[in-house]
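User: Sequence in, structure out. Go.
Assistant: Echoing your sequence, followed by the structure tokens.
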Amino acid sequence: MAERLRDAIAKARAARMVGLARSAGDVMVNQRAGHVGGAWNALKPFEPNPVQLRTSRVVAREGGAEAAPFDLMRTKILQQMRTNGWTRLAITSPTAGCGKSTIALNLAFSFARQHELYSLLIEADLRRPTLARLLQIEQSEPPGPQMSDVFTGAAEFADHARRIGDNFALGVNSRPAGRPSELLNASTTPQALKRIEAIYAPDLVIFDTAPVLVSDDTLALAEHVDCVLIIAAAEESTIKQIDLCERELAERTNVMGVVVNKFRFAAPEYGYGYGYDYEAEG
């Protein structure tokens, strides 16, 4: 199934011209000194519960065999982003239930094990936020952080961010936000992102975004990111859904590739029951 899906994606891609070249802009020189280092240190620390991570299928925190598929994706993504001077990566899916948030968390933890790399994970799926639940942040500190308040300009990132380790921070939502499409289309959202980058100078910003075919939320955000990675579910996502998702995104940003998730296979080399197949944009 995964091979047929991959081949179909490649054929659909070849049948049309895909190519919106978004200007990479100036590559940010990241210096972790002075006020930047102080800003990172001032973020509220959070230590995830290892049992909860395992329950949520987040396996890339410590590395090892189970983290290997995510480490492979990490390296490919990092190489492509560095080559193009990109710093903002959106992760999305055609529909709900493809596992995009779980993959976003695993990738973020994989990036965090690159100790010289400072990265942010920002939850931009404002209709069905899940990151706080997956990490059990809202249970430990009710009512919990709300990244949407940062997008409106009503709060600073530091008010709602949590730092895990020295070089990884995330902004999550403990509850759905009102009028998410209007918020992501508002001028306050790109202004908030620029302010976050100015203060924290991250090497990489990952956005966990809403499914593309469910609402226009991700299309609104797409013009503010450098590239996007599509997560599809084997035996659930159809070729038509993936192709439509890719077409919509390719009009607005660079489609980095498609990850086929949830295909079961015997993989003793990884020891993990779910498969991840990365199909890069060629």
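User: And one key feature?
Assistant: The longest strand covers residues 254-263.
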